Amino acid sequence: MSMDLFSLKGEVAVAIGAGGVLAGAMAEGFAMAGARVAVVDLRLEAAQACAQRIQQNGGVAQAFAANAMEKESLEQARQAIEAALGPATILLNAAGGNDPKVTVTPDNPFENIPIENWRRNFDLNLVAGALFPCQVFGPGMVARRKGSIINIASVSAHIPLSRVVSYSASKAAVLNLTRFLAREWAPYGVRVNTITPGFFPADQNRRLLFNEDNTPTERTRQIWSHTPMNRFGEAHELVGAAIFLASPAASSFVTGADIRVDGGFLAQTI
Ligand SMILES: NC(=O)c1ccc[n+]([C@@H]2O[C@H](COP(=O)([O-])OP(=O)(O)OC[C@H]3O[C@@H](n4cnc5c(N)ncnc54)[C@H](O)[C@@H]3O)[C@@H](O)[C@H]2O)c1
């Protein structure tokens, strides 16, 4: 046994949401480990920027635009990816986030959340963030008896955070769907796991975490005080867990698992 355990040579990794901060870092990690990477995002320019970073570091990557809220759009991306890079053997599902309209505040109490807003978070995190990509890319993996799917959960899937109620519920559903698929597809050589990131500054939450003068907000102080490592994570700190779960050699007996990369957040108590 050697460090080839963590090699992704010969793999084709599809990273959805990799125009963003966290999946972008994981997509770069897949390429460093030898995979050919399809960088998929709603924002083509952001996907292209990630693919270019990979190419500049000597990796193989191509950008694809797709809206993961629409199955047909993912289906078109799947066909384009297969023609360009070959069929997916790794699928990273990271489209997601919290719609601020659903955040509970004194002016926007739980009992008044409009159902359309609630559904938007479920459509983004559960449907685009896991269901549709698994429906589009999973059957090919099952047919070929080979695949690793990594869904992105959140600490709020485990312990609902204050204010982001429908985000938390939708991420809890991602954990549950992941275990369902792990059980269904294990006999066919397809593994399905989650990574639970703690708190990482990214495009979607930066305004919540830092004031305009870059000082930490009150929310940030609360997060740090509840994180044993007393800091935010950095996107590159997710790469090890992602490569481990992606690698058919390193995690061959791992399915239905959740790897927490959270600085100890979910271990914290008084
Ligand atoms: N940043 C954190 O602290 C944190 C913590 C826990 C979980 N997460 C989760 O990690 C994942 C990645 O988030 P991030 O922090 O990198 O945010 P991000 O906003 O930087 O990245 C999200 C990416 O998803 C893309 N996207 C959104 N809707 C899409 C759609 N319908 N189709 C295709 N692409 C779409 C966006 O264009 C963006 O590039 C999300 O699921 C998020 O909920 C983030």
Let me know the CATH homologous superfamily of the largest domain. Answer: NAD(P)-binding Rossmann-like Domain
Could you give a short account of the major beta sheet?
7 strands, parallel
Structural class designation: alpha/beta
* Low confidence ranges: none
Quick one: CATH class of the largest domain?
Answer: Alpha Beta
* Share of β-strand residues: 5-15%
What is the overall number of helices?
9
**SSE sequence, one letter per element:** EHEHEHEHEHHEHHHE
Q: List how many beta strands DSSP finds.
A: 7
Question: How far is the N terminus from the C terminus?
Answer: 42 Å
Our Rg estimate from Cα atoms comes to 18 Å
**Ligands present:** nicotinamide-adenine-dinucleotide
CATH architecture descriptor text of the largest domain: 3-Layer(aba) Sandwich
The average pLDDT score comes to 96
Q: What is the number of independent domains?
A: 2
CATH third-level topology of the largest domain: Rossmann fold
Give the strand line-up of the largest sheet. Answer: 3-2-1-4-5-6-7
The backbone outline, from C-alpha atoms, is globular
Helical content (DSSP H or I, runs of 4+): 40-55%
